Amino acid sequence: MLLALGIGVLVLCSALSLALGSRPIPLATVLDALSGSGHGSDADVVTGLRVPRTVIGLVIGAALGAAGAVAQGVTRNPLASPTTLGINAGAGLAVVTAIFALHLTQPLQYVWFAVLGAAAAAVLAYAMARRSGDLDPVRLALGGTVLTAVLTSWTSALMLASRRTLDEARFWLAGSLSGRSLEVLTPVLPLIAVGVVLALLVSPALNALALGDEAAQSLGVPVVRIRLLGGLAVVLLAASAVAVAGPIAFIGLAAPHLVRPLLGNDHRWLVPGCLVAGPILLLAADVLGRLVTRPSEIEVGIVTAFLGAPLLAVLARKVAR
Amino acid sequence: MNAVHTRRRRTLLLCAALAAGLVLLTGLALSTGQVEMPFTDALRALVGLGDAGDVLVVQEFRAPRVISALIAGAGLAVAGSVLQRLFRNPLASPDVIGVTGGASFGAVVLLATGASQALIPLAALGGGVLAAALLGGFAWRSRMAVSRLVLVGLAVQAGLAAAVNLMIVRFPAELATSALQWTTGSLYGRTWTEVRVGGTAIALTVAAVFLLHRQVSVLDLGDDSAGGLGLDPNRARLGLLLLAVVLASLAAGLTGPVAFVALAVPHLVRFLAGPPTPATLALTALTGAVLLLGADHVVLHLLPVHGLPVGAVTATLGAPWLLVLMIRRSGLPQRRES
């Protein structure tokens, strides 16, 4: 029931994303354009710009939402997310390095560097948190923060060392859905698919993990293996998202917190719920960014950071009484 | 008793060693560069004696930068130390709770308006106080729980970083570069104006911290005992907190939010000299100054690429060290709730 409602909201957000922007287009025209019977410049805007943007928003939002839910489950930390674990910063550094050294100019060329950097950062965060085979959740979060600080300062240093890199990278680093063609999405789709499947597979075990490592072990859950698989899912999903759209903060953090009051703490519901809540949040933020400074727009990564910050503050108030 | 005595002697020895290191580093920083000169000449030039060219180089270009590094390093380290003791939490540094982020937000806003750069320390102070006010608004209850403060601080930091990011994306390249330099922490182009304004304010605040520092030890006894000794714990805490915020903002206004100095130096000092005393606070100030000046030397003379921000160096040095610290202790530095 709630899931159906969620999907309804998601469809509404998609429709808004297709219809609103620097120039509003009536829904009827949108539908005509989608069915292929519409022509003219409005229809071209819809099929050429807004459809790819909306599709990318749907996929990336789902990936980020699921990544956040699994990250929070695996680390038993309600503040874990791709951003807080240093994954976005790792992708950022890798892409900026590639732009600096290889003179790249197209988002399509960034994709694999972003995936590589995100994965490397996640492995590092994991290695730092690992201690005699066990994973300390608090240390993981702190390690992620430290890692982010270092990686961002290296990223800035590279951008300061070369004006061309600065110009090329600063827009990508803001995080945006605009100006991407669907081709950018294609290479990472398999990664996202594997990530989603893994996320859904580990979600029952995450419920046991929530009871604590020892309790989970005594219930017969292979804690280490679940953490590894969950971590892999987070990396695949977050890395794909950052590769396509740049670092987008807080969607992964916010989605689970939005879903929990509605569907409860059961990860078997939480993870699918986040697959829906993530795109809702991302598309809503993207539409908002298009409307507030019309006719120009604010990158969605900046919108989510603005909206996410007070949310994090409210969460922190709740988490740490 | 004996142990305390040994420790104090060790602290004083460390202070002396660092002070000597400080003088050496200062001499090195003043005498090396495009124009090389002997130590003694550099020191003479500093007071206006000797070759006119040397005097110009030393007085106008090198001295403001060196003094900025010393003052800001000391200021950041002392601010971090006060915050960490106040909240009894090794993570509660001005970087983590968003104050230095607020300061760089203030500085970047000023850059955006195109006003005189001499006003940057003031703008940074405004930004830092704004961040602290946001922090207080969200986190304040009659007692300040540490974990809430740290988490809300991260949130404040993230929001302000988004604002800075927005400006960097929108700025023309020239302005974006200098904004980026500010937000990473850099000592390029410091002039006497900034040193005079920022430096005086920082020196006064550090002096005030030293004067009030005894209250921290009283607070350590617990609120009830502190009250029994005639100290209003909440007022004392608020006063020290404000001083730390002002100090961190001013330091960030001078050099930008140089990473890990405020976070790591108090750890380093605790590791070297044990639990805090007034003497270790002096040691903290000295360590911060030496560290930042040393890092700036690396940026200027030891790296192949020119124009790197000093914050990149301190982050590179500070982070692994902090991680080693985390791994060596069982678990991370213990999170103690107040």
TrEMBL record, chain B:
GO biological process: siderophore-iron import into cell
InterPro entries hit by this protein: ABC_BtuC-like, ABC_transptr_permease_BtuC
Annotated membrane topology: Multi-pass membrane protein
GO CC annotations, alphabetized: plasma membrane
Keywords from the UniProt entry: Cell membrane, Membrane, Transmembrane, Transmembrane helix, Transport
Pfam families the record matches: FecCD
Places the protein is found: Cell membrane
Ranges annotated as spanning the membrane: 66-83, 95-112, 118-140, 149-168, 238-265, 277-295, 307-327
Family stated for the protein in its record: Belongs to the binding-protein-dependent transport system permease family. FecCD subfamily.
PANTHER family: FERRIC ENTEROBACTIN TRANSPORT SYSTEM PERMEASE PROTEIN, FERRIC ENTEROBACTIN TRANSPORT SYSTEM PERMEASE PROTEIN FEPG
Full protein name: Iron complex transport system permease protein
Organism: Kitasatospora atroaurantiaca
Higher taxonomy: Bacteria, Bacillati, Actinomycetota, Actinomycetes, Kitasatosporales
